């Protein structure tokens, strides 16, 4: 297994108390595989990814338990230097907002080239040629001319392609993309997502795709892990999820995807808000919003029940949900 997160716990110290952002998350992704991590904001999906990348703000963020195994080594036990070299050469991250991740006063060619100068010891000239090649790979038209331009001279979609090029530069084993298309128009979203999926297959990378939108991952993910209140509430192959969700929260997310055949109808939305992470409800954390909640849900925390060999659900009533 390329990456295995085991029983990860992360807390944030705030002025009002301790926020339990990640509460026992386990997931895995192999080379050539795409895992979509799905959830509303505050579900812990980004924080988990930041812990994997080793870019969690600490303090106030603190990993209080668990393991992050990358190629079999627990990253949490590595020295700072080793950790940094794994992050630089073997993992890369793509963020939602390319404009704030790119340097506004450097041409994109210089930024892409820098990767090769610093990490591969290339000359400026060779690095520039590599930059053009990468821009071609992510299908930026007229790469040879545009390599001299600055980030603000590109459209949002093109900037996101540049981010992908930066991430790919050193051919990492793992890429984590955090809401990579959220800021883009729907049609551009699909193009960027297709490109990412294509490159992932070609380079046989592990890809973790973080999103709040179940609609964008259907065609590209192998597995989906749904997060709620810092836990994984359902984990399954993508087709199983679309066929029939085994958790009411997943069902809610599915029902809130806009569908062509329902044009004009009001979109379903899960009622209520995600919990305050300083006061996570007892029992099943989803119970205040769950249409299927029973008494037991208010007192007993559901474990991740084994629905099948490849599927888990943290719902006491996963059978009922599956057949609803
Ligand atoms: Fe709903 Fe109960 Fe299942 Fe939680 S355990 S998702 S409250 S039915
Ligand atoms: Mg986020």
Automatic annotation (TrEMBL):
<dbReference type="InterPro" id="IPR050388">
    <property type="entry name" value="ABC_Ni/Peptide_Import"/>
</dbReference>
<keyword id="KW-0067">ATP-binding</keyword>
<dbReference type="InterPro" id="IPR027417">
    <property type="entry name" value="P-loop_NTPase"/>
</dbReference>
<protein>
    <submittedName>
        <fullName>ABC transporter ATP-binding protein</fullName>
    </submittedName>
</protein>
<keyword id="KW-0813">Transport</keyword>
<comment type="similarity">
    <text>Belongs to the ABC transporter superfamily.</text>
</comment>
<dbReference type="InterPro" id="IPR013563">
    <property type="entry name" value="Oligopep_ABC_C"/>
</dbReference>
<keyword id="KW-0472">Membrane</keyword>
<feature type="domain" description="ABC transporter">
    <location>
        <begin position="5"/>
        <end position="254"/>
    </location>
</feature>
<dbReference type="InterPro" id="IPR003593">
    <property type="entry name" value="AAA+_ATPase"/>
</dbReference>
<dbReference type="InterPro" id="IPR017871">
    <property type="entry name" value="ABC_transporter-like_CS"/>
</dbReference>
<dbReference type="GO" id="GO:0015833">
    <property type="term" value="P:peptide transport"/>
</dbReference>
<keyword id="KW-0547">Nucleotide-binding</keyword>
<dbReference type="Pfam" id="PF08352">
    <property type="entry name" value="oligo_HPY"/>
</dbReference>
<dbReference type="GO" id="GO:0005524">
    <property type="term" value="F:ATP binding"/>
</dbReference>
<dbReference type="Pfam" id="PF00005">
    <property type="entry name" value="ABC_tran"/>
</dbReference>
<dbReference type="GO" id="GO:0005886">
    <property type="term" value="C:plasma membrane"/>
</dbReference>
<dbReference type="GO" id="GO:0016887">
    <property type="term" value="F:ATP hydrolysis activity"/>
</dbReference>
<dbReference type="InterPro" id="IPR003439">
    <property type="entry name" value="ABC_transporter-like_ATP-bd"/>
</dbReference>
<keyword id="KW-1003">Cell membrane</keyword>
